[in-house]
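User: I'm new to structure prediction. If I give you an amino acid sequence, what do you actually give back? Let's try with this one:
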Amino acid sequence: MRIREILEQREHEILSPYASFSDSSKGREREEKPCEIRPAFQRDRDRILYSNSFRRLKDKTQVFLTPHGDHYRTRMTHSLEVAQNARTITRALKLNEDLAEAIALGHDLGHTPFGHAGERALRDVCPLGFAHNEQSLRIVERLEKLGKGLNLTFEVRDGILNHEMELSPATLEGRVVRLSDKICYLHHDAEDAVRGGILSLEEIPKDIGDILGYSTDDWFDTIFTSIITQSEGKDDVTMDEEVYKATMRLRSFMFERVYTNPKAKSEEGKAIEMVKTLYTYYFDHTEVFPPYLRDMMEAGEPKERVVCDYISGMTDRFAISRYQELFIPKSWSVY
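Assistant: Good question. You get back a string of structure tokens that encode the predicted 3D arrangement of the chain. For your 335 residues, that looks like this:
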């Protein structure tokens, strides 16, 4: 018996009947020979982790644009923390940890430079619209590996696409990631806001703190415990009503005090205009695109979408350097 088959058998012995089993996956878009060592979802996790798109997340904004300081979160550290949160919950619920981790690592691959500010810029300027969850799916299906895609399983692709709260993943593991994402950014964005001097946890409203706690560690303990106790042995992932309402009030508080804080977001207007200007420029200069993107346009892919592909793949640093090279005059000199 191959190692993969032993691991697949172990899933059936250990996991909940409501878990997603690797040997019962709905499969990949392109049929391929199974790995002799890794079950399907573990293989997907590895493909995402080793991808160029994942590595670029280390220089993409989470909340604070290109912050000065080594300890602020980036889009990569956010994804890693979401993956760890998801593993904690799925392990307690006896769900498939490999599937949850794969979804978590891939859920934000489609984020633009400058985070949600860049996303809004592309959505405003591109007539086809732009959404980072749809772009994350497009990356793993179409753009990675020079246009070949990663050929991931249905379950991972579904979880990546449907990680937004208003959407509904097909698997319990996808639902765990959807909640883990929100819990995670409330936790670490509050910590970064405290580090940046724009928030004190003493300001947390009493109706939130009395339920969730007055520290970020307390929030984790309360919310995780609620999810696990409310979801154990059930074909659903949820939390009790009181904790859920308090979490949503915390989210509203964070939007008011951090996500729309003029001090924290003072540079966002510049970032938005930069992304829009780059879109306009590259729409008329697609000759500089990598060959696989030009091939996609020749095959009938809308130019507007491919321009978004190119710009959304940029890191903060790369976008700034391209803008400076294209639009900021250099000093004249004779050598």
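You can read the tokens as a compact description of the fold. Here is one thing that stands out. The chain has a mean pLDDT of 94.
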